[in-house]
Amino acid sequence: xxxxxxxxxxxxxxxxxxxxxxxxxxxxxxxxxxxxxxxxxxxxxxxxxxxxxxxxxxxxxxxxxxxxxxxxxxxxxxxxxxxxxxxxxxxxxxxxxxxxxxxxxxxxxxxxxxxxxxxxxxxxxxxxxxxxxxxxxxxxxxxxxxxxxxxxxxxxxxxxxxxxxxxxxxxxxxxxxxxxxxx
Length: 183
Known about the structure:
Distance between the termini: 67 Å
Low-confidence stretches: 1-12
Strand content: under 5%
Helix content: over 70%
Shape: globular
Number of helices: 9
Largest sheet: none
Mean pLDDT: 82
């Protein structure tokens, strides 16, 4: 049997098949969590829509669209290593839940701002914290360290407020001027 015959009789699993397998795995093992995430996404639909519009209109936030795809990919690529016998760490979920509630209060009491980033930043931070809370409550204790990096990437979808953008711009302008002076 030649190599070409071997490849044609036993093709490797395609990327589409891997993706379908991963989606099936997630849906079967985390039905309640998926329902909670869908409900959360519906509840935050307006700020998420504004974030999508912002990410499509500015280069600064163009990465936002890719972050959830990267997170899902990172979670599903190591799915065979996940432990399902331990219990979730419910106490650990209090930290992102508390931060999410504070950010949600800030969003609801802040009102609309002139700059869209100032309006949606607390809402998106709240959304990310609630996603973390749901994840911590649904992922087993021994699996959590294996998924922590992927979930931590979600923080990069939170837009900077105008004040933070000004601080970053000032820092880089000051640093560049120091470099220019020292040359």
